[in-house]
Write a structure and sequence with these properties.
alpha+beta, 298 residues, Ribosomal Protein S5, domain 2, globular, Alpha-Beta Plaits, ten-stranded mixed beta sheet, 10 helices, 32% helix, 2 domains
Amino acid sequence: MAERQPAGSALERPALAKINLYLHVVGRRPDGYHLLESLIVFAGVGDRITVAPAPTLMFRLEGPRQAGVPANDDNLMMRAARALAAAEGITAGATITLAKHLPTAAGIGGGSSDAATTLRGLGALWSVDDARLAALAPTLGADVPVCLFGRAALMSGIGERIEAAPALPLAWLVLVNPGVALATPPVFSAFKGPFSTSIPKLDPGRDAASLARALDATRNDLQEPAITLAPVVAETLAALRAQPDCLLARMSGSGATCFGLFTTAEAATRSATAIRVAQPTWWVEAAPLVTDVRRFAA
């Protein structure tokens, strides 16, 4: 069942960054959609969504990275709200406030995480069951279902097949975006193959170093296509790999955000500071690897 919101109260939740620890392109459907296999986790940094009762549906935008986010009905959050109200026959309204902190068009599912968090908040406000939210999520975008799932997941198909990932060890991430927006369609268009073969489920081990060794057998098939479109992605990866405590550096999603995997908060924070000093115009954040969004938000 959906969580219940006390009548008349506002509900605030984080919309965490979605990270593809690996992303394999394994085929292509006749309709042009690529088939993927990916291990999804979240990072403990993101936007903030507030949902509050109101006479009508209204959207408010704030935060340091609001530039470029549609503030009208084109916003995916408002599309999600209207779709949920229509599907459930709900006439009540809500004020949805987005405090935007994540970069846009960045390969970390910011818009999808915002939409999924909006669904979760409205589900609490309007008493809509989680199963009904999950049925609606695929109509809003390929990454919305896994963001609504909100736990470490093995995602396949075009995003519609989701299963819980094996237990992952404690680890920290450093996220780095060089300030270049990369739209997803051009990156997929730049992918020329070959398609990856399916891989056995990974044994992530008991610590971050073991997880990094397991991930060495995987990759992000969109990383090289993204570099051809935005060579600064290669510079971003090099900056992460130059950090002495970085266990693995890889691009997330279709880019341009890259992540480094670290054992401790201290190592991640130290490396994030070093990169931020060297590249003051880049977006750099150290954050824990999150395997359960709801527990993190509690």
